[in-house]
């Protein structure tokens, strides 16, 4: 990707930004406003991902990758403790963190807990005071003073994620904290791993249901491409890997009928999952003995941890 733009002017800036905040403070609303797409899908899934991508904001000279740091909430279990540690290291790896609070509620125990975690890292933290449409302007200053006593924020930005008030200012300020860097994701990519994994599983499930014994578990599905097209339709390109030519024949079916049916059924589920229209393209490839090949497994997204 070009580091400088065509005119040889501004350098491309990019970086990762963590979004932190108690439930319901408006993280998804802010993301949806910034990125203008329905990206906060799967937010109700178990918090197992270390660095879930919440959204990618791309312009001609900037790319901001927003990350969720789920583990920062008060740990309630062993897993929670583990997540806390990963949240802490995730915080060290980002250029900045946005700490969202709901100004229509006072500072709560949850907020104080998060602030304690933020003190452990040197990452610049923005206090993003959301839902200003719900209060009177004069209520804001005393609240800012209260937060300032708890932590030395890099910037304090009052916004309304719902109506977009001051969100541009937030973006402008954030961009100043980004180093020169590459465009990490294609401009139209909106999601990362978790959704892709579930889509692959949905496709695999349909095949297993429809084939029963003939094609046992010797198939794997890899999502090679997932992006939102200009018309708003999500394009998904997926490859179905089988071990033998005979299996390839079964999966494709007579005149491609079988594959078409797999696509039809999987698309229905995927559309329900993503909440948007989907164009699903499927290929079938033979990869002999893929189950024993370490590299292939890695390519397909399997992990050992
Ligand atoms: N009035 C007002 N409501 C807002 C604003 N931002 C978000 N909300 C509302 O607050 C509620 C929670 O917003 P979400 O974006 O789902 O909050 P979240 O932080 O993503 O919540 P979790 O996914 O539970 O962590 C929704 O009903 C939003 O419409 C705002 O700026 N003003």
Automatic annotation (TrEMBL):
GO terms for molecular function: GTP binding; GTPase activity; ribosomal small subunit binding; small ribosomal subunit rRNA binding. PROSITE patterns: G_ERA (PS51713), KH_TYPE_2 (PS50823). Residues 159-161 are annotated as: G5. One of its GO terms (biological process) is ribosomal small subunit assembly. Residues 21-28 are annotated as: G1. Residues 130-133 are annotated as: G4. Residues 47-51 are annotated as: G2. Residues 211-288 form the KH type-2 domain. Keywords: Cell membrane, Cytoplasm, GTP-binding, Membrane, Nucleotide-binding, Ribosome biogenesis, RNA-binding, rRNA-binding. InterPro entries: G_ERA_dom, GTP-bd, GTPase_Era-like, KH_dom-like_a/b, KH_dom_type_2, KH_sf_prok-type, P-loop_NTPase, Small_GTP-bd. GTP binds at residues 21-28, 68-72, 130-133. Its main location: cytoplasm. Residues 68-71 are annotated as: G3. Residues 13-180 form the Era-type G domain. It is a peripheral membrane protein. SUPFAM superfamilies: P-loop containing nucleoside triphosphate hydrolases (SSF52540), Prokaryotic type KH domain (KH-domain type II) (SSF54814). It holds the Pfam family KH_2. The keyword NADP does not apply. Monomer. An essential GTPase that binds both GDP and GTP, with rapid nucleotide exchange. Plays a role in 16S rRNA processing and 30S ribosomal subunit biogenesis and possibly also in cell cycle regulation and energy metabolism. Belongs to the TRAFAC class TrmE-Era-EngA-EngB-Septin-like GTPase superfamily. Era GTPase family. This is GTPase Era. It comes from Paenibacillus soyae. The gene is era.
